[in-house]
């Protein structure tokens, strides 16, 4: 029976024998363990060092509020008048196209005795129908005839947050618009002050225009000796 090597410990049979002790052999190196990267928290700016945006200066008096409302009203009035003028122009154009279409269709149902007149009417009918189709497909009908009718409605949807309303005054041919304060938010005193401010401004502008017109007239007149 072979004898066990000297470096093996004797075992009594009850305990396990460690056959491979932690020995470092020549020429063999232990594998390096990969170190887990340490995640550093992202750098955040200190909230105390961040400058806050400057707040707008508060309005000092109600006259400044009325002045801003007057500027807004004048802008909306100009847009309303421009759209009304554009609507009338394109309404006339659209009515002419419809009238030509009706006449040319009639000329095809009851044709002329002259063949060249009949074919000329047919060519014109194709041209007019093509123009009507392009007028609708390009969106010009909606932009020039539909949107101007809804200008006041669309404007009031945007003005709802300011507690003001755009209303129409005057007749069909000489209509205009002006702003009205919301009676549920503003008091009767504020509404009366706004109306007085508006009327006073327009009265001053009217007198100013009369004075300028008079001065221009005086400059044009020759000096009598």
Give a verbal description of the structure:
The chain has 225 residues and is mainly α. Helix content is 53%, strand content 5%. It has helices spanning 62-109, 115-137, 140-146, 151-159, 188-220; strands spanning 164-169, 176-181. The chain has a two-stranded antiparallel ribbon with strand order 1-2. Strand 1 and strand 2 form a beta hairpin. Helix 1 (62-109) packs antiparallel against helix 2. The longest helix is centred in the middle third of the chain and has 48 residues, at 62-109. The radius of gyration is 45 Å and the shape is elongated. The termini are far apart.
What descriptors fit this protein?
mainly alpha; two-stranded antiparallel sheet; disordered N terminus; protein phosphatase regulator activity; Spo7; membrane; Spo7-like protein-domain-containing protein
Describe what is shown at a glance:
This is Spo7-like protein-domain-containing protein. The protein has 225 residues and is mostly helical.
């Amino acid at each position: 029976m072979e004898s066990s090597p000297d470096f093996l410990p004797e075992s009594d049979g009850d305990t396990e024998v460690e056959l491979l002790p932690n020995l470092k052999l020549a020429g063999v190196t232990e594998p390096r363990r990969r170190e887990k990267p340490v995640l550093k928290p992202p750098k955040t700016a200190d909230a105390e060092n961040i400058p806050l945006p400057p707040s707008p200066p508060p309005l000092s008096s109600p006259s400044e509020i009325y002045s801003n409302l007057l500027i807004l009203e004048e802008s909306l009035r100009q847009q309303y008048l421009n759209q009304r003028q554009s609507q009338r122009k394109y309404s006339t154009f659209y009515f002419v196209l419809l009238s030509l279409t009706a006449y040319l269709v009639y000329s095809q149902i009851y044709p002329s005795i002259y063949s060249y007149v009949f074919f000329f009417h047919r060519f014109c009918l194709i041209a007019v129908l093509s123009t009507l189709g392009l007028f609708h497909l390009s969106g010009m009908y909606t932009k020039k005839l539909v949107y101007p009718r809804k200008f006041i409605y669309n404007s009031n949807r945007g003005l709802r947050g300011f507690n003001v309303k755009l209303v129409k005054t005057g007749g069909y041919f000489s209509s205009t618009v002006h702003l009205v304060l919301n009676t549920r938010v503003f008091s009767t005193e504020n509404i009366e002050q706004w109306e007085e401010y508006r009327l006073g401004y327009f009265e001053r502008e009217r007198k100013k225009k009369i004075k300028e017109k008079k001065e221009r007239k005086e400059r044009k007149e020759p000096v009598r000796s």
